[in-house]
Specification:
CATH architecture of the largest domain: Beta Barrel
Number of strands: 18
Shape: globular
Oligomer: single chain
Largest sheet: 6 strands, antiparallel, barrel
CATH topology of the largest domain: Thrombin, subunit H
Order of helices and strands: EEHEEEEEEEHEEEEEEEEE
Length: 286
């Protein structure tokens, strides 16, 4: 899990600052192209949490008067890391978020009413519902929410990871997808692997990953292998369909977000029974 920060210290650990392996198929020209395209990506709609990054997000079908949603990592939830298999729904919250404009200026403090959904099983997400609507945020602050892409990410696509916590961006490309990414007790499915240029650091947990072509959120930054260890905390490993394990020291990862879209209904309600929704459910309603 990409590192989260608490009180200025590395407390909730999880993303990388390790070596940079040389991956075949990514030339210097490719990297320059990705970086030049990244200039169009800014901070508008991103947020800074007490220890992580995040963003105000909407689904394609969201209405302007729906309560706004903030997306960050499951391991960034204020109650601590959810256990493997644990799913949290409709948990009261008064957490606050600093809303950023395009130039990374803090323009407002937004407040949650609840944790609508959180888990570290299959994916690594927390979705907060806010006290204010999308319309109000746009009207008061001139900032539109980021849209979640309803489609699967695309290999080779240029991306930018936008950290509201650090007010910093990281540009690279999608190197590929990981059948299973395992870190400690947690396992994530179909994770996004970055090319080596995205050397995300502590506090980038929960950052939206913006696809340059669509301008939409295609994933959420969450982890990286720091020390070259195998499947341990701060050192996720890749597991293929045959159970073979690969360790890539210094490489960082994200979790796809298109699977959230079918699970959000009218009024920003997270409805795990909606058609097409495959997010993990609480044990009591399996």
């Amino acid at each position: 899990m990409s590192k989260a920060l608490a009180g200025g210290l590395l407390a909730l650990a999880l993303a990388g600052a390790g070596a940079t392996p040389a991956f075949a198929g990514h030339t210097q020209q490719d990297r320059h192209a990705a970086q030049s395209k990244a200039k169009a990506v800014d901070f508008a709609g991103t947020v800074a949490l007490s220890n992580c990054s995040g963003s105000v997000v909407r689904t394609p079908q969201a209405a302007p008067d729906d309560p706004a949603l903030v997306l960050t990592n499951g391991h960034c939830i204020e109650s601590g890391f959810p256990a493997a298999g644990e799913v949290i729904v409709d948990q009261p919250s008064t957490r606050t978020f600093k809303l950023l404009d395009a130039k990374a200026n803090e323009v407002a403090t937004l407040k949650a009413t609840k944790v609508s959904y959180a888990t570290m099983t299959d994916t690594d997400i927390t979705i907060y519902q806010l006290t204010t609507s999308y319309r109000d945020i746009t009207k008061k602050y001139g900032i539109k929410p980021l849209e979640l892409d309803a489609d699967h990410p695309v290999k080779g696509r240029a991306i930018t990871v936008v950290s509201g916590y650090w007010k910093k961006t990281y540009s690279c490309s999608i190197d590929g997808f990981v059948y299973r990414l395992k870190e400690g007790e947690w396992t994530w499915k179909d994770s996004v692997r970055y090319t080596p240029e995205c050397q995300t650091i502590g506090g980038t947990s929960g950052s939206p990953v913006i696809d340059h072509k669509t301008g939409k959120v295609t994933a959420i930054n969450n982890t990286g292998n720091e020390d070259g260890e195998r499947c341990t905390l701060n050192n996720p490993c890749e597991v293929d369909r045959n159970g073979n394990v690969t360790v890539r020291k210094g490489i960082n990862y994200a979790q796809q977000t298109y699977g959230i879209v079918p699970c959000v209904g009218k009024g920003s309600k997270i409805d795990l029974a909606r058609p097409g929704c495959k997010l993990p459910r609480p044990a009591a309603v399996q």
